[in-house]
Amino acid sequence: MMALLHFSSSFCLSTTIPNLFSSLRSPTKCPHRSKSGRIPAAASSFPAPPPDSAIADFWRWLGEKGALPKPSPPVRPGLVPEGLGLVAERDILRNEVVVEVPKQLWINADVVAASEIGPVTLGLKPWVAISLFLLREKGLDAASPWRPYLDILPPETDSSIFWSEEELSEIQGTQLLNTTLGVKEYVQSEFAEVEDKVILPNNHLFPSKITAAEFLWAFGILRSRAFSGFRGDKLVLIPFADLVNHNASITSEDVCWDIKGKGLFSREQIFSLRTPVFVNAGQQIYIQYDLGKSNAELALDYGFIESNNKGREVYTMTLEISESDPFYGDKLDIVESNGLGDIAYFDIVLGRPLPPLMLPYLRLAVLGGTDAFLLESIFRNSVWGHLELPVSRSNEETICCVVLDACASALSLYQTTIEEDEKLLEKGELDARSKIAVGVRSGEKRVLHQIQEIFRSREVELETLEYYQERRLKDLGLIGQQGEIIFWESN
């Protein structure tokens, strides 16, 4: 039975963002591509920074709220290439605390519950409730106690959820496009529901009309600014600390923040941020957002990629055991006993071997015919071990054909070649979003070519591989090490 195999983005939020929603797979039609096939120029490479007056107001607000140590804070907000960041006021040692934010300045579900909209947000997903809170406070304008913080938030980031239709056309064929459209569709559906059940029936609580675009903005803010560890019910924004930017040169996986008491006998909690490296006065404080994210995930979450990091170039292969498979029940039992399901996602990274569970899953997914005896209950405890090695020539040939066909199909969806992408990058004329588009699509294609090379090489080796029956006969002593048949004669 042929396996269902396709390529799709396995979407999950992690690390410096909360787990806002469950996995999404939403392949939809691609936006219209510009007729010229060229990448359009954007007005700027980074989101417009807030005015100096807004930064000054925010700084005063932090001082009034007790977020600035005396006599002089080690860092302060400053304009940087990324927009706004934390700049060292003096030399700062590695692991030295640079920001401490008291809990009274955190924005989480408790803050929402204690606000005027608290009673009408009960039961909502935390990110939905906090999004409504942010938008309500923005609508209050000067009357909001959170205005100094809201005024420094960017109107959008370079995350692909904020791209125009023309910009999205430049990632046609990519998993990033499918995931981006799926996310936007999800946020739109959540907005439609909360608008119908919460916003419209309680419009007296919201000083201005909340639109779908504003709701997407709030989602993007939460997605890009919340720290790891604050997911689901723990979702929280930490003003001031959330100004820290990412740098690829920071490769430490150590968490550089923690929650602690304000004093020895105080119950008040503070969020404490440390610098993972020594920083000179005048330099920006950086952290590592997440070493495990792919470039597509970085583009979706934050609006940047690491162009020269092969470890960020990832393609997700989705394998599925079809319910129409006559051996579906047996196969499902086998994969579930090995920690998998009837749908499995395998992240393939450029320059690295295939995930160890991928080949066994593939062999099982296409298993049938004369190989189906391995599905019998007598083999249930040992079958996965057999699947870790080639089962039969026909089974191994089938998985090669399935994967190569899927790669060819995926590559046919891209509008450019890797060589064309490289030329665009060499010219150096691309804006930030265009660089992301070219970087992501070229990275995906490189991984697809790598997968093709692996399985083409395997096709060539089919005649020389050792299969189950041969291994079994050797175990029984009926075949020699050179493959010769051993005859036993009685005396």
Automatic annotation (TrEMBL):
Protein known as: [Fructose-bisphosphate aldolase]-lysine N-methyltransferase, chloroplastic
Gene Ontology biological process terms in this record: methylation
Annotated binding of substrate, by residue: 225, 242, 257, 289, 302
Entry's Gene Ontology cellular component terms: chloroplast
Localization of this protein: Plastid, Chloroplast
Keywords for this protein: Chloroplast, Methyltransferase, Plastid, S-adenosyl-L-methionine, Transferase, Transit peptide
Gene giving rise to this polypeptide: LSMT-L
Pfam family, one: Rubis-subs-bind
Source organism superkingdom: Eukaryota
InterPro entries assigned: Rubisco_LSMT_MeTrfase_plant, Rubisco_LSMT_subst-bd, Rubisco_LSMT_subst-bd_sf, SET_dom, SET_dom_sf, SET_RBCMT, SETD3_SETD6_MTase
Single GO MF descriptor: [ribulose-bisphosphate carboxylase]-lysine N-methyltransferase activity
Top-level EC class as recorded in UniProt: transferase
The species this protein was found in: Apostasia shenzhenica
Binding site for S-adenosyl-L-methionine: 82-84, 225, 245-246
Residue span(s) of domain SET: 73-290
Entry coiled-coil feature ranges: none
EC number: 2.1.1.127
